């Protein structure tokens, strides 16, 4: 189930679906000048989920959004939605931008020599991630399994 179908919809303010604490949907333009605002929105929408999962989602969102803010053109927007049915649900995180020709690479950054590890973290925390193009737009996405009480949590390890 996709709570927002299609990625052609205009940006909306962040919103909670209101159908229960485990249903989450977010679509918002990106505040590149202050990523803490985005992290607060994400944390608020995930209230009631496992704390470790919330931290993982915040980190993945932060890295994907920072990449778009550093390397891509506007419009940029973040979209999160829940997909699946029951115990195999995943949270899908998408960052849309207008730089279809600039594809992110693991371990590389034009923003400085101490940068470029964000996608390694995204890869470690996600069940899958990738990039797709849609016309002049690019979408960098990641899927994180939503933990049930019985499921072990995937953690970033050194």
TrEMBL record:
<keyword id="KW-0723">Serine/threonine-protein kinase</keyword>
<protein>
    <submittedName>
        <fullName>Anti-sigma regulatory factor (Ser/Thr protein kinase)</fullName>
    </submittedName>
</protein>
<dbReference type="InterPro" id="IPR003594">
    <property type="entry name" value="HATPase_dom"/>
</dbReference>
<keyword id="KW-0418">Kinase</keyword>
<keyword id="KW-0808">Transferase</keyword>
<feature type="compositionally biased region" description="Polar residues">
    <location>
        <begin position="1"/>
        <end position="10"/>
    </location>
</feature>
<dbReference type="InterPro" id="IPR036890">
    <property type="entry name" value="HATPase_C_sf"/>
</dbReference>
<dbReference type="InterPro" id="IPR050267">
    <property type="entry name" value="Anti-sigma-factor_SerPK"/>
</dbReference>
<feature type="domain" description="Histidine kinase/HSP90-like ATPase">
    <location>
        <begin position="32"/>
        <end position="143"/>
    </location>
</feature>
<feature type="region of interest" description="Disordered">
    <location>
        <begin position="1"/>
        <end position="22"/>
    </location>
</feature>
<feature type="compositionally biased region" description="Basic and acidic residues">
    <location>
        <begin position="13"/>
        <end position="22"/>
    </location>
</feature>
<dbReference type="Pfam" id="PF13581">
    <property type="entry name" value="HATPase_c_2"/>
</dbReference>
